[in-house]
């Protein structure tokens, strides 16, 4: 099986005209590729940022925001739990320090 390389020439042996070329000079201004790419990247970046914040906004609409009463209740539970655990650690620390003092004497 032979592989053939695609040729960029017409049957006459001349290179075909690129898109938009008709042999006459066009009146369109030629823009370097770097500028076009930079504009596309900037547009994509702006569109991406807009899409991100739209998604954030839509997700925030789905959030269950607690009422003032729920916030106060949950805060009270956390404060009581922290005080309880702190007191528990203090008691165990006191017992362990007395025990170590008895061993050292």
Structure description:
This protein is mainly alpha-helical and 105 residues long. The chain folds into two domains: 30-63; 65-105. Helices cover 64% and strands 0% of the residues. It contains two helices and no strands. The chain has helices at residues 33-62, 68-104. The longest helix is centred in the C-terminal third of the chain and has 37 residues, at 68-104. 0% of the residues are buried. The mean pLDDT is 80.
Spatial separation of the terminal alpha carbons = 96 Å
Shape: elongated
Q: Measured on Cα atoms, how large is the radius of gyration?
A: 38 Å
How many helices in DSSP terms?
2
Helix and strand pattern: HH
Q: Compute the average pLDDT.
A: 80
**How many domain units?**
2
As a percent range, the share of strand residues is: under 5%
Class computed from helices, strands and strand pairing: mainly alpha
Low-confidence stretches: none
Q: Could you tell me the number of beta strands?
A: 0
Helix content: 55-70%
Biggest pleated-sheet summary: none
Task: Describe the secondary structure blueprint for this structure.
Elements: H1 33-62, H2 68-104
Short description:
The protein is an all-alpha fold.
Keywords:
2 domains; 105 residues; mainly alpha; elongated
